[in-house]
## 1
Amino acid sequence: MDARSAALVRADFRSVVESPHGPERLISAFYGHLFAENPGLHELFPPAMEMQPRRMATAIQYVLDHLEDWERAQGFLEQLARDHRKYGVEATHYDSAGRALLAAFRAYHGANWNQELEDGWRDITILISASMAIGANSDTSRPYWDATVVGHRLVLDDLAVVRLQSDEPVPYQAGQYVPVSVPQRPKMWRYLSPAIPSNPYGEIEFHVRKIRGGWVSPAIIGETTVGDRWKIGGPLGGLRVDRDSGRDVLLIGAGTGIAPLRAQLIEMGQRGINPRVHFFIGGRYPCDLYDVENMWQLSQSNPWLTVVPVCEQKTNPWWYPHPVQDEPYGMHRRLIGNLGAVVASFGAWADRQIQIAGSAHMIADTRRALIAVGTPEHSISCDPV
Ligand SMILES: Cc1cc2nc3c(=O)[nH]c(=O)nc-3n(C[C@H](O)[C@H](O)[C@H](O)COP(=O)(O)OP(=O)(O)OC[C@H]3O[C@@H](n4cnc5c(N)ncnc54)[C@H](O)[C@@H]3O)c2cc1C
Ligand code: HEM
């Protein structure tokens, strides 16, 4: 595609994204054309799709931003299509997706459509659909694994530890996350982070917190029973300890964000030699540190690990009427304050490889606190939220 055409489609897409409800109008036209040509595809989608226009617009924007670095754009589209296999989307569907996307741009612009836009968007939609078809065809591994719930334990009113046994081991690395679909909310895939490393027996553990008003997490907390069959998609994400760097490790996790960090620590516990690790576990109340006893136990048999509990409040809330237990002898005392501020109060941790995991808000807060005291930005890893 020549530079003039690229500039034209970029400017045109900016006008769509910046106009009120532009992405919604465009993507709704896309689905209108797609389902008119393939009525069966409607079945693949969940009932609630309010996030979809933004997600799809972000994907198209990524492609437009990388037209001069096509390998990156193609890699992204191929990965997207490999991932789409879990929804049941096949390579043969992308031809008509390309046509539907071009028709959507035409419909969006109505009388303002012209030959230059037609030529520019035709090139882009062909590039997208061809790359996605290649991606869908390029992977013969399974799109998802089936697993049976073998345990469901409420550790807090709104937090469950769910154990599953997959029919075949899911090949994730400790620290990665996986898309999950549960029978109570079919087709609504959500990301969860396994809290134990992958093992040959196919055992997986997830820690799930209920998000009020959410579709899937309340069903996992309140409706999941032993025997339920879950689907687990291919692993994603790059949180890992770089053993070759020679650098010690700082892990910071809050809430169920501890899961990917915990999985890595359990895996490290299976090795003889490890870098030194400081693990700060944060929560609002002491009861939010629901797994700290297990982490203390792990640290007792692994001298390279120091666990530091941090709470914003000293006591439990009224709805959790249990006294706060003292730390076991020899364990780091509980610190009180904002997690990011407490970690940053120790200094910049400039010689460490650092991982932060938790809610989007907690990650942004903690990053900011560390960078403010001089932590090099490139030392900090966190997964997209
Ligand atoms: C990489 C990654 C790993 C994850 N790992 C885990 C995990 O191990 N355990 C776990 O419990 N969850 C984890 N999550 C979050 C999980 O994927 C879901 O987003 C969460 O369970 C909410 O889903 P829902 O269907 O209940 O809510 P939705 O129906 O998707 O959302 C309902 C509303 O709640 C808002 N919302 C969604 N998530 C949050 C949040 N965290 N805090 C505040 N508001 C929110 C949404 O914006 C929306 O307005 C992870 C997310 C990512 C991106
Ligand atoms: C025949 C074509 C396609 C079908 C049937 C299809 C189907 C789906 C389905 C069922 C979802 C899940 C929706 C949800 O959970 O709310 C999804 C998500 C998504 N789709 Fe598509 N899609 C197609 C083409 C495309 C194209 C062409 C793009 C962009 C270039 C795209 C980008 C995305 C993105 C970014 C998401 C969200 C991320 C994800 O969950 O993987 N899709 N799609």
## 2
Amino acid sequence: MRRNGKPSLLLSPNSILANALLRSIDLLRPRVLAMRPARIEFVVGTQINGAPHLGTNLVQTAAFLLAKLARREFSTDTRVRFGALDNAPYEVVLDPETHTAYQQTYYHALGKDKIAELIENYYRAFFDSLSEATDTDYAVETYTDQQATPGFRAEFLRTLERLDDIRWWMAPSHGVIHTRIPCPVCGWAEKRADRTKLAHLDEDGATFTAVCFDHGPYEAHIDPEDDSPYLDLATLYRNLVKERALGRSTDTLHVMMKGGDWAFGCQLVDGALGALHAPPEHMPVRIFTPQVLAPTGAKLSKSLLREHGTRALPADVEPWMLDTTTWPGSTDNYVDALVWLVGELLSDPKHFFRSFTVKELGRLMTARPTEPTIRAHEMGIYKRYFDLIATGRKTTEIRVNDSSRKKIKPGSLIRFRCQGDEVLTRVTRVNRYASFEEMFDHEPVASVNPTATRDEQLANIRQIYPPEREALGVVAIGIELTDPPRPQ
Ligand SMILES: [Zn+2]
């Protein structure tokens, strides 16, 4: 039972991780305290081969919601970085003579513009809506963009120096790491890189030799200063290079958001990071999100369906769960439903660090609130200020100008929350200042708090915001109640 007497929507057993945490976001605390980052970035990678299914959108929604929670919890700026994996194989063929498998990536088959179109069609409206619902900025980066950066290439070259130390971690069954460097003429590459050899490695870079089924042998030189030739790494190796490159940042903490099935694979990446002597402060921080399971307990997977047909489709799967673009409603309506669902899962670490069958998720989704959500920026606030707002006596709210405030404009709605109570307001004006002092030179002091003097208010505010937060700048937000004021 919940405190308010309603029966709990979710029942979850305890787990090792849940037992160690009061809230899911606490998982980040040891690294946040050790690093004191200026920013936390939640990194979520997604295959873009086809319409997203529920599992994919669940990871993405969790990234945005955790970014919102982390911003509040650690008083730091946060954002989401979406990695579109356009190196997924688009087509695989066999060389008729050697029977070597060759593959072409989505990027090579479709080209940059078509990839951008895929991202626009499947994700843009969804991310824009999530960004608005959680006041969280996001950036999109393709794997193709990422592999072309000097940081990624330099990191890759460093791993080549230690190839013997990592190859059994990256390929425990045969010790052969697959580095695909597509033919510069046609863009096809050997799937298992059988004839791709590292010919030379020195401080100027690495030279590979490979063989195209159509254009014969070719040489490719990888140099951090040059964004070509294309470098297509197998999944584990790509993650090793990516996590190692991101781990070097001293001001941004990168949090890898991964579907729960990744937990099994990550020990191989960790083994390789250890073999490369990655220092503890560079080790990746990862959050594994709930898996969506078929009744058999297997991950709900579109490839399983492709291979076994609709026979493999569990009776409980609703069409939108496999292709979320078929959701019977608007994008905002879908996002509001997902934000509600993931918010419920995040209400207790026992609910978040576990998996869910499609049937259980279907049950939860039908239990969601039916009244439409009014989209509003959300702000937590102390009780004494909440009461002043609800009774109409506080008409200016003061915040530091972090990224989540940038979207607040006259006419925006702000929902203030305090101890399970909430009040909805409309923004009448927005003014930005360099400091709290400057703000009080221009804003009516009594509109911020009618019960305290300027000096008392300054002292209170500075207890809440340390100097490094005030350095972001100050935003004064004029507010009016959308409903009549409550009695005093
Ligand atoms: Zn070729």
